[in-house]
Specification:
Blueprint: E1 2-3, E2 10-15, E3 22-28, E4 31-35, H1 36-43, H2 47-59, H3 65-68, E5 69-75, E6 81-88, H4 89-99, H5 102-125, H6 127-131, H7 135-150, H8 157-180, H9 199-215, H10 230-237, E7 241-242, E8 245-246, H11 251-265, H12 272-286, H13 301-313, H14 319-330
Length: 332
């Protein structure tokens, strides 16, 4: 297969364990790209199933189509040219979680390694310049870009889109730099919750989640089974007070602690990370705090998976840092 539009990047061959599946994977713009047909081969599902999952991803606004799709003209074996769509790693991972594919997990690990090497090459070249960047100056620059975007001073859609990508990347880079240097601060802007999550509501939501996962054969019988009464304690702790003041007064406080405690305390026999992420999203959604003003999710699925894994692997002594990281992502 010959690509005409996606021809500036790098082609990397991916093989599954045992070598049963081999794909030519395009690496460009710090991500990887696959077509629906290639995802079908990767996940061992028919193209119709892959297409349905992608439609639902966009319908539920997990991801926005413009930023994760690229069209390209290909020359097929019959000599005719066709325009097909390629999807980036965000879509590939989201589809992988929906089909609960072991191949998807293997591909994610492989792609992450390939991208890390891809990014490190650029980082090595620009290391000296990057090391001289003043974090304060970078934050000011990002603020200026945001102001430019908000005031709609740009009329060119492509330029506006480019600046948006730069701003989002820089914000994430700033947060991770602060995390690495232990300089994360509590967000200054916090929002009062309107919705209260109690134990009964949470158990009902988890039961519905389990039923849904069971129909897709994506949950074990042990999923969501409480080990003891610790989950009830976690929910109660979100609303504990000191004197007359709540210990966790804001949406950001409660959401971050909810995610952290469920993942870290393991109140369920199975499914702690998925349940923690699910209730985190539910709490934000019911408080009207799941989406940014432009309609994008504050934390998309891939960022949430990364945070969940980071929390799971973190030292309990790093609790405050992890809480601040989640809260900063919500205010990013």
């Amino acid at each position: 297969m010959k690509t005409n539009d996606l021809n500036k990047g790098e082609i990397v061959i991916y093989k599954t364990k045992g070598g049963k599946t081999a794909l030519e994977v395009k690496v460009e713009k710090d991500t990887v790209w696959l077509s629906q047909k290639e995802m079908s081969e990767l996940f061992q599902k028919d193209v119709k199933t892959i297409n349905e999952h992608i439609k639902n991803i966009f319908k539920e606004r997990e991801l926005l189509g413009k930023s994760v799709i690229r069209k390209s003209r290909i020359t097929a074996s019959d000599g005719k040219q066709y325009e097909i769509q390629f999807y980036n790693l965000d879509v590939i991972i989201s589809v992988g979680y929906r089909v609960k594919s072991k191949q998807g997990t293997q591909f994610r690990i492989w792609a992450t390694q390939v991208l890390r090497e891809h990014i490190l090459k650029g980082y090595t070249i620009n290391h000296k310049r990057l090391s001289e960047v003043n974090l304060k100056e970078l934050e000011q620059a990002v603020g200026l870009i945001k102001e430019t975007l908000n005031k709609k001073m740009l009329t060119n859609d492509e330029a506006t889109g480019l600046l948006k990508v730069i701003t989002d990347y820089a914000n994430s880079w700033i947060l991770l730099q602060k995390y690495d240097n232990n300089k994360l601060e509590d967000p200054k802007k916090k929002h009062k919750p309107k919705y209260e999550l109690n134990y009964e509501k949470a158990i009902e939501a988890i039961s519905k989640l389990k039923t849904d996962l069971n129909t897709k054969k994506e949950a074990s019988d042990l999923f969501g089974n409480e080990r003891d009464r610790s989950f009830e304690g976690i929910i109660a702790n979100l609303y504990q007070t000191f004197g007359s003041d709540e210990l966790y007064p804001s949406i950001e406080d409660k959401a971050a602690h909810l995610l952290y405690f469920i993942i870290k305390d393991h109140p369920f026999t199975d499914g702690n990370k998925r349940i923690g992420a699910f209730l985190f999203i539910l709490f934000l959604s019911n408080n009207g705090y799941l989406f940014k003003s432009n309609g994008e999710r504050k934390i998309n699925d891939n960022a949430l998976v990364a945070l969940a894994l980071l929390i799971a692997e973190s030292n309990p002594k790093e609790k405050d840092t992890m809480i601040k990281l989640v809260m900063n992502f919500l205010n990013n």
